[in-house]
Write a structure and sequence with these properties.
The protein is an alpha+beta fold and 79 residues long. The protein has two helices and four strands. A four-stranded mixed β-sheet has the order 1-2-4-3, covered by helices on one side. The protein starts with 12 loop residues before the first strand and ends in a 7-residue tail after the last strand.
């Protein structure tokens, strides 16, 4: 992931979802603009791509609509 949410003005928290003892999926949690979000959106990239390539533009839209977003990379790509 060469582009991260702060590159487009969004704060985020990097997290991991454990698959087993040695593998995980990297996620970015982008909180809503206001403290009371409208909901949470889960975003996954297309086949062979990563969250940094495909998911930042839609995340910015959901952020403007006051949704939390969780961007998830698939196993073996991205983070």
């Amino acid at each position: 992931n060469f582009t991260i949410p702060t590159d487009i003005g969004l704060k985020y928290v990097k997290q991991r979802i454990s698959i087993n003892q040695t593998e995980w999926l990297e996620t970015w949690f982008v909180p809503a603009k206001q403290s009371s979000p409208n909901g949470t959106i889960l975003l996954f990239p297309g086949n062979g791509s990563s969250k940094g390539k495909q998911l930042l533009a839609p995340t910015k839209v959901f952020h403007a609509l006051n949704y939390d977003s969780l961007l998830v990379d698939f196993r073996g790509v991205g983070g």
